[in-house]
Specification:
The protein has 3 domains: about 240 residues, Glutamine Phosphoribosylpyrophosphate, subunit 1, domain 1 (4-Layer Sandwich); about 200 residues, Rossmann fold; about 140 residues, Rossmann fold (3-Layer(aba) Sandwich), CATH 3.40.50. The protein has 20 helices and 27 strands. The strands form 5 sheets. Strands 3-2-4-1-10-9-11-15 form an 8-stranded antiparallel sheet, covered by helices on one side. A 7-stranded antiparallel sheet has the order 5-6-7-8-12-13-14. A 5-stranded parallel sheet has the order 19-18-20-21-22, sandwiched between helices. The radius of gyration is 25 Å and the shape is globular. The chain binds 5-amino-5-deoxy-1-O-phosphono-D-mannitol.
């Protein structure tokens, strides 16, 4: 969960690395550093704290070289400090690393016994020493890295520079992401595409077990056992400004407001209103699979899991297939049962979440057919799967997921409609009606976003609440969970999401005049029942903030405060009811002054178990 970046070219490298790290800071932000070739030496500047600290350190100590590597850290081994920040230096080599070396205890003991002294508490320094030890006279950096990695077990994306080879960077990958950027007379590498975008949109994804030597004009890729790899560069369609704030105070706010566009992009080319169907070639699945399966299993974590809960609802309702949702972080530690008649849908915006990746691997080993729903092209989970359905949200930088969530919902509803059509459980007329409702969502979202001032007023009213309950039924339940997750992760208020019908089985004990209760209560099939739950809250003097449908007087009459959303079809309600909840979390956090885009203790991609 760190970010790494490297550059070989003719520009001054320190600002290039810093800009790259800014675009990767979402991956980790407790310390950072760079290593640069300068006049036959490797100079290293590191700083504890956020990237601004590194920037100040670099202002105080400008560097002139044009080859270097950089790192932004999310601590795993060793507390966040300058001493534990990367790059780690050992003799002639400096190393940056994203991942975890699993056999670090054993390797450290061996190295210590042979006289090596360590200057940090990191597992990465072990790799630096192993490479340095192998990098003897006549052994190239590439060969030394390869040799060192034979001893290493675990996950890594590595970038290494050697004082003795000033014109190149060597990189290697196992389980953690690494992508090469092919520029014009310059070559880059990074943990994620946004870091490359100011220089190039031509990228080559490194596979697990591969190593590469980057010079200004060439990326020489080989497998760890020495076989050459020929892989053409792909052009990504993300624009450089997509990873900038564009006048918004935070990435999260920008990303909330980008949702109508992100939904349009995710729908584009995938819907045929004339035939009432989803375009086959766009789904990453074969019609035969749709007919053969007898179960759908969703695997995901966090926000993606909430999307999965909606997916289950849609798949059961529209395709009449039994569907289950699994927290991927739990699946891998059970002895789960998957069969060849399972369709596993793995949802992950980053495509890197280790728990989801491992659960996918297990499902695949048991013969299940796996489809990834993902926002990042060619990332680890799509590559582990049989097919991929990409959301087109564009880069999401804010740690709290927003536009990736709503585009996941779009992808899952498309999938459920497609399954229903293939399995003859959904006729073309009903499918066309649903698709039409989806196509109209961006407009409904824009209307909802225009009402931001009402949400801001609610945020001012409730910003000091220490606890908040979120309730919903049916498709409103995952939205209640997601609203609570958004609030807790960025405002640090304690928030719980509950199925409204479960309240009476326990949480109702929490209700008193100090407990704000957000109720997702649009005019859907569950409205009457949800209304009864609201009455139960009111009877105990709970404060109700209702997410209601436009013009619903009955709902407005029972809630102390309401935030209304346009009247859309029941099936697509989550796509609008989530918007005021995202904004509520955002404004409360902003009013409290928390670090909205980089909340404490979190990282955007979770590549640890
Ligand atoms: O990249 P993924 O979708 O697999 O990530 C899963 C969770 O880590 C992620 O959704 C997390 O819960 C977000 N911080 C939520 O905003």
């Amino acid at each position: 969960m760190c970010g790494i970046v490297g550059y070989v070219g003719s520009s001054r490298v320190a600002p290039v690395l810093l800009e790259g790290l800014r675009r990767l800071e979402y991956r980790g932000y407790d310390s950072a550093g760079v290593a640069v070739h300068v006049d036959g030496k490797i100079e290293i500047v590191r700083a504890a704290g956020k990237l601004d600290q590194l920037e100040h350190a670099l202002e105080a100590r400008p560097m002139n070289g044009s080859v270097g590597i950089g790192h932004t850290r999310w601590a795993t081994h060793g507390r966040p400090s300058e001493q534990n920040a990367h790059p780690l230096l050992a003799g002639d080599v400096a190393v940056v690393h994203n991942g975890i070396i699993e056999n670090h205890v054993e390797l450290k003991r061996q190295l210590t016994n042979s006289g090596v002294e360590f200057s940090s508490d990191t597992d990465t320094e072990i790799v630096a020493h192993l490479i340095n030890r192998a990098h003897t006279e006549g052994v190239s950096l590439m060969a030394a890295v390869r040799q060192a990695l034979t001893q290493v077990r675990g996950a890594y994306a590595l970038a290494i520079v050697s004082r003795r080879e000033p014109d190149c960077i060597v990189i290697a990958k196992q389980s953690s992401p690494l992508v090469i950027g092919v520029g014009d007379g310059e070559m880059l590498c990074a943990s994620d595409i946004p870091a490359l975008l100011p220089h190039t949109r031509r990228v080559i994804f490194l596979d697990d077990g591969e190593i590469a030597q980057l010079t200004a004009t060439e990326a020489r890729i080989e497998t760890l056992d020495g076989k050459p790899v020929e892989r053409a560069a792909k052009t990504v369609d993300w624009s450089p400004v997509a990873a900038e704030k564009s006048g918004f105070k935070h990435f999260m706010l920008k990303e909330i407001f980008e949702q109508p566009r992100a939904v349009e992009d995710t729908l584009r080319g995938r819907v045929s209103l004339e035939t009432g169907d989803v375009v086959d070639s766009e789904l990453g699945l074969d019609g035969e699979v749709a007919r053969q399966i007898d179960r759908v299993v969703f695997l995901a974590c966090g926000t993606s899991y909430h999307a999965a809960l909606c997916g289950r609802y849609w798949v059961e309702q529209l395709a009449k297939v039994p569907a289950h949702t699994e927290l991927a972080s739990e699946t891998r530690y059970r002895d789960p049962v998957f069969t060849s008649r399972d369709l596993v849908i793995a949802i992950s915006q980053s495509g890197e979440t280790l728990d989801t990746w491992a659960a996918v691997k297990t499902a695949k080993e048991h013969g299940a057919h796996v489809l990834a729903v993902c926002n990042v092209l060619d990332s680890a989970i799509p590559r582990m799967s049989h097919g991929a359905l990409y959301t087109h949200a564009g880069p999401e930088i804010g740690v709290a997921s927003t536009k990736c969530f709503t585009t996941q919902l779009v992808a899952l509803l498309l999938l459920a409609i497609w399954l229903g059509r293939r399995r003859d459980t959904l006729n073309s007329h009903r499918a066309a009606t649903l698709l039409q409702a989806l196509v109209e969502i961006p407009h409904a979202m824009r209307i909802t976003l225009e009402r931001k001032d009402a949400v801001h007023a609610a945020a001012r009213r409730w910003m000091h609440a220490e606890h908040m309950l979120f309730l919903g039924r049916g498709l409103g339940y995952p939205i209640a969970l997601e609203g609570a997750l958004k609030l807790k992760e960025i405002s640090y208020a304690h928030a719980e999401g509950y199925a409204a019908g479960e309240m009476k089985h326990g949480p109702i004990a929490l209700i008193d005049e100090n407990m704000p209760v957000v109720v997702v209560m649009p005019r859907d099939a569950h409205f009457e029942k949800t209304l009864s739950n609201v009455q139960e809250v009111r009877a105990r003097e709970g404060q109700v903030i209702g997410i209601i449908s436009d013009g619903d007087q009955e709902a407005a009459a029972v809630a102390q405060m309401t935030l209304s959303v346009p009247n859309v079809a029941d099936a697509v309600l989550p796509l609008v009811t989530i918007v005021p909840l995202q904004l509520l979390a955002y404004y409360i956090a902003d009013l409290k002054g928390t670090d909205v885009d980089q909340p404490r203790n979190l990282a955007k991609t979770v590549t640890v178990e």
